[in-house]
Specification:
The structure holds two protein chains of two kinds.
Chain A lengths: L14 H21 L17 E7 L6 H11 L1 E7 L2 H14 L6 E5 L3 H7 L11 H4 L10 E2 L2 E2 L2 E2 L5 E6 H6 L9 H13 L7 E2 L6 H13 L19 H14 L12 H9 L6 E6 L2 H6 L11 E4 L11 E2 L2 E4 L7 H11 L2 H7 L18 H9 L6 H9 L2 E2 L9 H17 L4 H16 L3
Parallel strand pairs in A: 1-2, 1-3, 8-9, 11-13
Antiparallel strand pairs in A: 3-12, 4-5, 6-12, 7-9, 7-10
Helix pairs in contact in A: 1-3, 1-16, 8-9, 8-16, 13-14, 14-15, 16-17
Chain B lengths: L1 H30 L3 H4 L14 H7 L4 H37 L5 H10 L6 H13 L6 H26 L2 H9 L4 H12 L1 H16 L3 H6 L8 H6 L9 H21 L1 H9 L5
Helix pairs in contact in B: 1-13, 3-13, 4-7, 4-10, 7-10, 8-9, 10-14
Classes of the chains: A alpha/beta, B mainly alpha.
C-alpha cells in the first residue's frame, strides 16, 4: 500500500533520504541478484532489429536538438523517445527496474558512481560487445571510470571533472597568487584574503549531508596525495597520516577557523555554486564542476562575478594534483527491447562530431541544452580551437590527466559508502563528532561493506 | 492562571501557523522573482520587482516546458480522478459489508485489511512494479490507477466503515422488512445518509493520490502518463537548480489540493473523525 503523504512536494525530498532510497533499492537489488536467477549475464531477450523501431532513451538531460534526432532517424530508421528525469529520480528508476528485473528504457544513464553496482548486478550489456571501446580509450580518458570486472558498463557522453575555481579579482586584491600550486599556498592565500577583509569567508565547502560533500572530500583527498579506497575497495583514511584523514581535517578546520561561511553546514554543492561563488560571497571552490565558469559564473543572469572566476590547476602536496572524474555515461540495460538499436544510438550520441555539435562548436542550432563538456578529447580540442569553451585551454590538460575517483572502479556498495561519508563528515562539521570519530565510522563502514557483511 | 494558559495556546497556534505557512509564502515569493533576486544576499523577505515570468514560462507558449506541464496536469487529474472514483466505489461496498453483514471471518478480514496500512509503502514498490510489468500495465493510466486504488482502499474502507457503523440500524431493518434487498437498501437508504462520509473519503483519496511521487515515477516511463509531481522534478538540472521556476511549478501543483482542502475542510475533518464519537 501507499504511504500517505501530507505534502505534494516530494521532489524536494532531502538528498540524504533520496540517496538512502537509492541505497535501499540497490541493496535489495543486490540481494535479489544474489538469490535469484536473474543475475549476472542473463540477457533480456531483446530484438536485434535496428531499423523501423522506436527506442526509449532515459537521461537526466534535455534532449538534443530536434533536427539532430530527426537526422539520426533518417539515417538509421530508429526513432528516439527521449525521457528526461532529474538525476536522483532517474537513479531510483534504474534501481527499481534492476530490482524488479523489468524493462523501462533501451538506453539509460550510467553514472560513474553506480558502475560497480550495475556491473555486479549484471544488468547492463557489456558495451565492448557493441562498440569498439578499445579504439575509443585514447580519446576518451574517462572510459576507465566505466569499467567493472573488465567490462565497459557505459560510454561516457560528457566529461565532468572536479576542478578548483578561484575569483581572481579577490585573490589579486589580497595580493596573493591567484594560481596557488600547493595546498599550503592555497590555504595561506585564503587566510590572507580573510585577514585583509576582501571577503569574510573566502572558501566554499558544501557541508550539507549530501553527495556533493562526499565528492568534495574525494577531491581533497586526492589533493593531499592519496585516494579514499585502494583498488580492492579497502579504506585508506583511518589514521592521521593518511591523505583522506588530512583532507577531512583540512575541511573541518576551514569551517572552524572561519574560512568557510558557518551557514555552509546546510549548503549543497549546487547551492554553494549558485548563491556563494556566483554571487562573489566566497573567493574559491576547491572542488567545483568543470563547465561552471562558462555555464554559471560567466552568465550575467546568474552571476555577479562574470569574467572574474577561472579554473586553476588543483593544488596538491608539492605541486598541482590530477583531477578526479565524475562523468555521466550511457548504457544498455539487459531488459532493453532493442539493444542493437540502442547501441547504434549510443555510437551516434557519443561520437566526436556529435559532441562537437552538442557543445556549440558548429553553431547554436546544433547545441544540446545544458551539455557540459565532451568526453572526447578531440571534441574538446575543437571547442578550444574555435574559442567556444570558456577556460578551455585550462580544462583540456586537466581532462587529459584526469583519473577515476576509485582505482578499482566504483564499488558495488558505493551508495551506502557515500551515505556514511557525508553523514559523518557533516557530523564532524557540526561538532557532534570529532574528525577522528568520523574517519573511524566511515572506515568501519567501508571495511564492513568491502568484506561483504 | 487561565490567562497564562490562553497566552501559551496563542503562542502555540502562532508557532504552528508560522511553521506551516512560511514555507508556502516563501515558495510563492520566490516564484514571483527572477533567479538573481531570489538568490540575492541578504535575502529579500518581500518580492522585489515581482514578475509573472515563471508562470508565463510554465503555462503559455509552445516550448517543451509548457507542453510538459499541460500534459502532466491532465495526467494527474485523470489518474487521481479515476483512482478516487474506483476507490470510493469499492470502499463503499467493502465498508458496508464489514459494517452491516455477518459472515465467517469478518473481524479477521477487516483487521487484515486495516493492518495493511501499517506496511511501509516502499516494501510494495518492487512487487507492484513487477506485477504491472508482467501484465503490460507499466506506463499506462490503468496501472497507476490500480496501484493507487490498492494503496488507498484500506483507509477509505476504514473511514466508510466507521461512517456506516455510526448510522442507526433501524432504517436498514425497515427497508429489509419492506422487501428491499441489500443493494437496494444500500443505494436508496444508506448512501444518501452516508453522503458526507463518501465526500470526505473521496477528498482524502484524491488529495493523497495528488501528492504521490515515487510510485508514479517508477510506473510511468514518459510524458504519456507522468503526473505533474514527476514532471516538476525533471525541471531540475544536476548541477544547476532553477529555483524560481521550480517554486512556480510547485505553487501550481498545490493550487488544486489547496482549494479542495480549504473548500471542503469540514468534510475532511468529519471523515477522519467518523466513528470516533457515538
Amino acid at each position: 500500500m501507499l504511504r500517505i503523504r501530507r505534502r505534494t512536494g516530494t521532489r524536494i525530498t532531502p538528498p540524504r533520504r533520496r540517496t538512502a532510497l537509492i541505497a535501499g533499492l540497490t541493496g535489495l537489488a543486490l540481494v535479489l541478484a544474489g538469490c535469484g536467477d536473474g543475475g549476472n549475464g542473463q540477457a533480456g531477450g531483446g530484438s536485434t532489429q535496428t531499423s523501423g523501431v522506436t527506442i526509449t532513451v532515459a537521461l537526466a538531460s534535455d534532449p538534443p536538438p530536434k533536427a539532430a534526432l530527426e537526422a539520426f532517424t533518417k539515417q538509421t530508421g530508429i526513432t528516439v523517445n527521449w525521457v528526461n528525469l532529474d538525476w536522483d529520480s532517474l537513479q531510483n528508476k534504474i534501481s527499481a527496474a534492476a530490482t524488479a528485473n523489468t524493462y523501462f528504457a533501451d538506453a539509460t544513464n550510467v553514472d560513474w558512481s553506480r558502475v560497480g553496482q550495475l556491473g555486479k548486478l549484471g544488468w547492463y550489456f557489456p558495451m565492448e560487445d557493441y562498440v569498439d571501446t578499445a579504439a575509443m580509450e585514447a580519446d576518451v580518458p574517462q572510459l576507465a571510470s566505466f569499467k567493472s570486472d573488465g567490462h565497459v558498463v557505459g560510454i561516457p557522453y560528457d566529461a565532468s571533472i572536479m576542478v578548483t575555481t578561484v575569483n581572481t579579482e579577490m585573490f589579486q586584491k589580497a595580493g596573493v597568487n591567484p594560481a596557488p600550486k600547493t595546498m599550503d599556498e592555497y590555504t595561506n592565500a585564503l587566510r590572507t584574503i580573510k585577514s585583509k577583509g576582501v571577503v569574510q569567508y573566502p572558501l566554499n565547502i558544501p557541508f550539507a549531508a549530501a553527495e556533493g560533500l562526499s565528492t568534495y572530500w574525494y577531491e581533497a583527498t586526492n589533493a593531499f596525495g592519496g585516494s579514499v579506497l585502494d583498488k580492492d575497495g579497502k579504506p585508506q583514511f583511518a589514521t592521521p597520516d593518511t591523505a583522506g584523514y588530512k583532507a577531512a581535517q583540512w575541511m573541518v578546520d576551514a569551517l572552524k577557523s572561519g574560512l568557510v561561511p558557518p551557514g555552509n553546514i546546510n549548503v549543497t554543492d549546487s547551492q554553494g555554486q549558485q548563491t556563494l561563488m556566483a554571487k562573489g560571497v566566497v573567493a574559491s571552490t576547491f572542488s567545483d564542476y568543470s563547465g561552471t565558469v562558462g555555464t554559471l559564473y560567466g552568465i550575467k543572469a546568474s552571476s555577479s562575478v562574470v569574467g572574474k572566476v577561472k579554473y586553476i590547476k588543483t593544488p596538491g602536496v608539492s605541486g598541482p594534483a590530477a583531477n578526479l572524474s565524475n562523468p555521466d555515461g550511457i548504457g544498455i540495460p539487459k531488459k532493453a527491447k532493442y539493444p542493437n538499436a540502442a547501441a547504434k544510438f549510443i555510437e551516434w550520441f557519443t561520437a566526436t562530431e556529435q559532441q562537437a555539435d552538442f557543445s556549440g562548436v558548429n553553431g547554436p542550432d546544433k547545441t544540446m541544452p545544458g551539455y557540459p563538456l565532451p568526453s572526447h578529447l578531440s571534441a574538446v580540442k575543437q571547442m578550444t580551437a574555435k574559442g567556444n569553451l570558456i577556460g578551455g585551454a585550462d580544462l583540456e590538460p586537466m581532462l587529459e590527466g584526469s583519473k577515476p575517483v576509485f582505482e578499482g572502479g566504483a564499488p558495488a556498495w558505493y551508495p551506502k559508502f557515500s551515505n556514511a561519508v557525508y553523514t559523518n563528515l557533516h557530523a564532524a562539521a557540526t561538532g557532534s563528532m570529532s574528525v577522528e570519530q568520523a574517519m573511524k565510522a566511515i572506515s568501519d563502514t567501508a571495511t564492513q561493506l568491502a568484506s561483504g557483511s | 492562571m487561565k490567562r497564562r494558559t490562553s497566552g501559551l495556546r496563542g503562542v502555540g497556534v502562532a508557532m504552528i501557523l508560522l511553521w506551516s505557512l512560511v514555507p508556502i509564502y516563501w515558495a510563492i515569493k520566490t516564484s514571483l522573482q527572477t533567479e538573481a533576486d531570489a538568490r540575492a544576499k541578504p535575502a529579500h523577505y518581500l518580492p522585489t520587482n515581482a514578475t509573472w515570468q515563471n508562470y508565463a514560462t510554465l503555462l503559455s507558449g509552445d516550448g517543451d516546458v509548457p507542453a510538459q506541464i499541460r500534459r502532466s496536469t491532465l495526467n494527474i487529474v485523470i489518474e487521481c480522478g479515476a483512482a478516487t472514483v474506483v476507490t470510493v466505489l469499492l470502499a463503499t461496498l467493502a465498508a458496508y459489508a464489514f459494517a452491516r453483514m455477518q459472515f465467517r471471518g469478518k473481524t479477521v478480514l477487516f483487521y487484515a485489511v486495516i493492518a495493511t496500512m501499517a506496511f511501509p509503502a516502499y516494501t510494495t514498490l518492487i512487487p507492484l512494479y513487477r506485477i504491472m510489468s508482467t501484465f503490460g500495465l507499466v506506463n499506462t493510466y490503468t496501472g497507476i490507477v490500480l496501484v493507487y486504488v490498492s494503496g488507498f482502499l484500506p483507509l477509505a474502507t476504514w473511514i466508510l466503515h466507521n461512517y456506516f457503523a455510526s448510522l442507526p440500524s433501524g432504517i436498514e431493518e425497515a427497508g429489509l422488512v419492506d422487501g428491499a434487498h441489500r443493494l437496494q437498501v444500500l443505494w436508496h437508504l444508506l448512501l444518501p445518509l452516508a453522503r458526507p462520509g463518501i465526500i470526505s473519503t473521496a477528498l482524502i483519496t484524491f488529495l493523497f493520490a495528488w501528492g504521490q511521487f515515487l510510485f508514479p515515477l517508477v510506473l510511468s516511463s514518459d510524458l504519456s502518463t507522468q503526473p505533474l509531481t514527476v514532471v516538476i522534478a525533471s525541471l531540475q538540472g544536476r548541477h544547476v537548480v532553477p529555483s524560481t521556476l521550480l517554486n512556480a511549478a510547485g505553487v501550481l501543483a498545490i493550487i488544486v489540493p489547496a482549494v479542495l482542502a480549504l473548500a471542503f475542510n469540514r468534510y475532511i475533518v468529519n471523515g477522519l473523525l467518523a466513528g470516533s464519537t457515538k
